[in-house]
Amino acid sequence: MARPKRNLLATAQETSSPPASLDDNHAIARVRKAEGKNLYLVELPQRTDPLLVELPARFRSQIWIKRGGYVLVDTAAFLDRENKLDGEIVNVVREEKEWRKQSYWPLEFVKKSTYPDDREDETSTVGKMPPSDDSDADIRG
User: Fold this and answer.
1) Is 90 exceeded by the pLDDT of residue 26?
2) Are 44 and 86 in contact (CB under 8 A)?
3) What ranges in the chain are assigned the alpha helix state H?
4) pTM, whole model, 2 decimals?
């Protein structure tokens, strides 16, 4: 039997807007890989080694997390238990533009340009006529 739609709407409403401030043990992380069984490998901006975090039951089968997306992680959630989990996903970043405006957004997660600028010194030829060839004038003349 499917879950009531009010649960889905409540979860969507909860994840739609960023919090005003973050707790000390909360951090924004980028999802690197889905490990399966609601476990995700995420990277924090300050750390080089990835963390294994769990998606809580309230988000399962309701909010989908894609690789390269962002989540809010509670790193102190599993400190009292001895297991391989390093934290729990507290919130999923859905409206990324709104989250990026917040003061706590990490500078390491700068948005990359869709079109990388390979050469800055090269001038654009968009909207210009092709160069005239002087050899055509010699043949006709």
Assistant:
1) yes
2) no
3) 5-16, 96-100, 134-140
4) 0.70
